[in-house]
Amino acid sequence: MTKKKRKYLSPVMLEHKARDDFEKKRYREAMESFEELYWMDNEKYRSELLASYRALADTFIQNKKWENVEDIVVKIKEITGGECDDLLAVKIAIKRGDYAAAADEYISLLSKGIEAPGINEIPGMADAIVLRFHDSSFFKSYNPEIYKEIIAIHKALENIAHERYDEAWAEVKEIGRNSVFSHWKLFIKGSIAFYTNEDEKAKLAFSLISADTLLHDTAKAFMVLMDNTQQKLPETLSKKTLRKICYLSGYPELAHVLPDADYFWEEGDHLNSYRYIRNGLSDFPSEETGIVGTLTRFYFSSIYYMRADDAEDFIEGIINNRSLTDQGKIENLLIKKAECFLSRGWRLSDLEYAGIWEDFLDVYKEVYGENKKIEAIVYAHLGGSFAVEEKNEPSPFHWMEHREDEVCFRNAKLAERYLLKSIDRDEGSKDACLQLLIVYGKTRKLQKLNRLLDKLVAIFPEDPFILTNAGISCVNRNVFAKGIKYLEQANRLDPLDSKIKKQLALAYLRAAPLNFDKGQIPQGRKMYGKAINIGIKSSHDFNRGIAYIYARWSGLEFKNQNKERGNELFHLALNNTESPFPLIYFTQLVYRCYGVPDIYIQKRYDELDNAWRNAPTPANVALLIDIYSYISEISKPQWLVSEKKRIVEYAFKTLWAPCSETDASRIVKFALQEKEFKLGERYIAKMLKEDKEAPLFLYHKLTLRELGKRVVPTEKTLQELEHILLLAEKRNNLQLVRELKSEVENLREFLETKNILNGPFPKDMLDAFDEDGDSGFDIIKRIFEGISPSKRAHKKKKK
């Protein structure tokens, strides 16, 4: 491609163009035009050509294009007969960071008597003068004012170094705003404020320092140190500024390693960042206090915030490049500690997991010697990890018998072993003791539980939790005196804990009948009196409600033929309740449980019959159900069957009465539990008629359908549950939402398993089972085929 020919311009037009380009800062075009004009008339255009050279040189200096600057200098020398522009030389030296050379050029100009207007306004010139000359007699004779300010600045800096802040400020106070050293005054003012903890004042002074001065980066370093809101250094922070921060912070040893280590870290090269610090600091890593210890904690704590793969790569990299210095043992200990954390996400057996922590203890012992406190903490952690509860999931078959939720641990044997080790190392390790109590209690190791409780009561006599558990343990063994003593002590220590009061009330109520049976009637009455003292007025709590406590007490008085006392107590019971009907029903059932003579029971029957005749309400039904359930937990006599029938009949009479959602739900749950499906169906229909999208009763309806038909849940069941869950979430029914989420998750897992097992079964697998027996595998297969195992077995036997 041919170069476009330049259009010829007359000297007048060329002159006009050159000056226009110069005004518009097109210095290269202006220079070319003035060069042509210069060869036409040297004298006329010499000054304008030099001006264009200087302007273009300034542009190159700002952009650090040193080769271009040198070309301009050559051209200037050609015109000036070998002499360079001294002002330009000063600018080049400052931009290159050679402040000594810049100051020397400045002195050279002054000594030759050359006036250089504006030289003091060159950015960085004042910095060069301050750094180059501490005490110059030349300035004293040439410019006494400059000399005075230079001396004042140096004295002020020396005073700051010796923490003489008032004297430092007195030295520079007179430097005016228009002085070329005004930014040094601001810097000194900011430094004094920084070291005297006047951060806002310091920030203001540093923020006023111009960006084209030497002090700007140092001021920026101060600003970073004062900015407590920053979680990390700004991305634009240069290595140079970071080095200054190290010096200002009093850690000069970090200045040559931290900037590069920070660069590697920001690039995601964590291992090289760590190695750069380790290679640069002889005492790294360290667990001591101070900056080295802080850096160590930073690197080894960072794994908690990395992705698992990155954290493992980081630690593995350190392992493959272990330190061979004296700090190698510390590094090995820190690696072991990191592995303990990371091992939580590894697929390890329980023994392998425990082995990693025990390796850590071995290395710790090698570095610091034996430390039983650390060992106790580690063993307690292991014991707690193995004592994580894993409850059995509920069966997705609603029509199957529900077994009680059994609590199993991740590894009860190892939990016990390591918790005992922790207690052995530190008997005062309360957390380990309490965790072991839970393990013994839920694995039903009652002898060990009782021995541990007796030991803990002596160690922690002021701990309400331990005293409460010790009391419950004694009461369960019928050691009432000791158990009540522990519970009363716990109640005194924490009188606001209702759980302690509940257990104490139960202890009184269990001890009192035994006292009456042994003929220790005063002691029995005392127990009931204590129970009333911690009871609740007008409450339907069958253990702490004062009315219900009086009712129990009256029964035992009647049983012991204390008729007047019994009647008095029963009337006290009636006076302490707002709902006589459920109280009378409770009293009648308790009398039968206690074996009270029929004459007194019959009297309660007569009173109850009168109450039954009143208009029935769902609220009363819910209370009767609670009473029935409570008595069923105490004992299950044969006569309770007739009581259930009586409650069901009473409940049917309330179908047309207004009903709260809570009472209706309680009635439906009772009906499903006792297989009174018709009652449940009628109540569900009643509530859905009032609100067809009530999630609770849609859920009850689904449960009833499965219980009644005994069907295997399907994908359709799952869809229905998910729809009900959505409705529950919209109504913010948090308890139902939690229950439904668990149900949905269990059913989804069940259906996935069903899909796997519902395929064709290999013949050799089926032949492995006994022909005449029903294996668990065969039962599952038949369930999924929709055939009841018991019916198939019956047909086979008949054949």
Key words describing this protein structure:
70% helix; two-stranded antiparallel sheet; 42 helices; mainly alpha; 799 residues; disordered C terminus; 2 strands
Write the layout of secondary structure elements.
Blueprint: H1 11-23, H2 27-40, H3 42-62, H4 66-80, H5 86-95, H6 99-111, H7 125-132, H8 137-142, H9 144-161, H10 165-172, H11 182-195, H12 199-207, H13 215-226, H14 239-248, H15 258-266, H16 270-280, H17 291-301, H18 308-320, H19 328-342, H20 350-368, H21 372-386, E1 389-391, E2 407-409, H22 412-425, H23 430-442, H24 446-459, H25 464-476, H26 480-493, H27 498-517, H28 521-533, H29 546-559, H30 563-575, H31 580-594, H32 598-613, H33 618-634, H34 640-652, H35 661-673, H36 677-690, H37 695-709, H38 715-730, H39 734-757, H40 763-767, H41 776-785, H42 789-798
Antiparallel strand pairs: 1-2
Q: What do you see in this structure?
A:
Helices cover 70% and strands 1% of the residues. The chain is built from 42 helices and two strands. It has a two-stranded antiparallel sheet with strand order 1-2.
Summarize the structure.
With 799 residues, the protein is mainly α. It has 42 helices and 2 strands. Strands 1-2 form a two-stranded antiparallel sheet.
